[in-house]
């Protein structure tokens, strides 16, 4: 109708990061006519930026490692709020998924014996991250992309989805625009897999790229699905703090995994002062033992620099607040005094170049200045653990835009494995559902008209505000009021500010035409950013305790009562905000509970 470009598929995957590509391959292999739609160029998804590695208990370095230890580490890292079934499937299936990547041509770094090498990361009991230097995401994307293209899966790139369609309560398709021409595209499909990544662009200081505007989170809400764990945002302890143009850019955790330590302006290795009770038994309490651990993990406990990210980020924040920070408001990360220049250049080539080129710092000779940066959202679409099906028939979610797997805090390396394990599962389930339908639902013509009108609305008003100024104010507000340390008063204020931003966003205007118009694109993204920011602030205000990626200085303790429930967000009746409700966690079976019974 109306000369719209239309396509019909069994499965449409939105997103071409690790999760989307793996889901599309699985759907195609299961016989589904499959398309991938992505906002940026193929190969540019966020996954490409992943540095450290893929967590999988392959046991190549430590034969003692197995899925049970990985499962336990993941649950403890998430402070037991994880969906236990997802954590179990993830730990069990990650080794197979990594092996499969290798079969498809990924070239991992090797051990002396020729096995896939595995490196140490925070919260993982054994060296467990399969890696390619510090460019693991690039290799993963290269491999998956080559396979997807070789299989002949259709790819629509630089094409942004703004709306999902439902017919009789079930998914019937998606609506998108081409970034270059501004023309619209309609995908008719009974199965849609959301694999759109995270939300970091709602914060001012972030390691995330321009694409991370929470589109999948918002699309799911608008389609009637629910989000969980949204109060849990991971602030990575080590982002660059200088120069200003790169503030927030990630400094991989591998620097610490490979021996780097944190010092304050007095030269003190301060992490020993911040070992929480929960991790005391497994963390070294003196420098000698911590340093011995790199070579002898059996007889020594791990260094406190490798505590889970939330612990390290909070410690850094406290040191800076106490006036022991570096000149540019960070803290020092020192590998230069601990490892040889050859070792550093070989193990951390990207970090070496990143600091040399961007900050004129030689990390083989001087310490880096780093500070916390908004990195990852644990929260996302609430899904069934085995199939990644959301609450809406035909709508699946996987990767960073899904919730549950990581609980209140994600361990490093557990995202890339999450993408592969659940990407495959979602693709298979989406294909099976489509194959089981007698006929495909069609999109109602009036829904097409509404979607077009909504996408064009930013052109309708004149003399309104520029979307960039609203975005900037939102980012500052989220950073200041919903950041690493929160309190009830500021969270309530943030919700008021978000309401005011929403009001301003109703009257924004964009200049120019539909051809390649970033202002218009931002206006459409902003709707999603505002909705998702509201979810984060609302859940953060409701959860009156501190746990994982959520720290309240008015409720500094972890509360046993809050450890039994999730907060679930759904679109409210106005369609422009969200409602929040408590929901009990799924109960872990007894045989899995035994892993947590020792001290
Ligand atoms: P992405 O890779 O972000 O892909 C999202 C896709 O969705 C993109 O193709 C985008 O174009 C598309 N998209 C979004 N919105 C729309 C829309 N509206 N319409 C159409 N398409 C859309 N994790 C680890 O496990 N190990 C690591 O070492 C590691 N290092 C990291 C380093 C950095 C710097 C960062 C930022 C993250 C790192 N992470 C790491 C986290 C991990 O990289 C991400 O969580 C993961 O890559 C997310 O993958 P994804 O497939 O869910 O989404």
Give structural notes.
The protein is of the alpha/beta class. Helix content is 34%, strand content 16%. It contains 16 helices and 20 strands. It has helices at residues 18-29, 67-77, 84-103, 136-150, 215-223, 254-257, 287-293, 309-321, 341-347, 349-359, 414-435, 445-456, 467-481, 488-506, 518-542, 590-593; strands at 5-8, 11-14, 34-38, 54-55, 118-119, 129-130, 154-157, 159-167, 170-178, 184-188, 191-194, 227-228, 233-240, 261-263, 331-334, 368-377, 380-381, 395-397, 565-571, 578-584. It has a five-stranded parallel β-sheet with strand order 7-3-2-11-18, covered by helices on one side. Strands 1-10-9-8 form a four-stranded mixed β-sheet. A four-stranded antiparallel β-sheet has the order 17-12-19-20, with helices on one face. Strand 2, helix 1 (18-29) and strand 3 form a beta-alpha-beta unit. Helix 2 packs across helix 3 (84-103), helix 13 (467-481) packs antiparallel against helix 14 (488-506) and helix 13 runs parallel beside helix 15 (518-542). Bound molecules: flavin-adenine dinucleotide (FAD).
Give a summary of the structure in a few sentences:
By secondary structure, the chain is an alpha/beta fold. The protein has helices at 18-29, 67-77, 84-103, 136-150, 215-223, 254-257, 287-293, 309-321, 341-347, 349-359, 414-435, 445-456, 467-481, 488-506, 518-542, 590-593; strands at residues 5-8, 11-14, 34-38, 54-55, 118-119, 129-130, 154-157, 159-167, 170-178, 184-188, 191-194, 227-228, 233-240, 261-263, 331-334, 368-377, 380-381, 395-397, 565-571, 578-584.
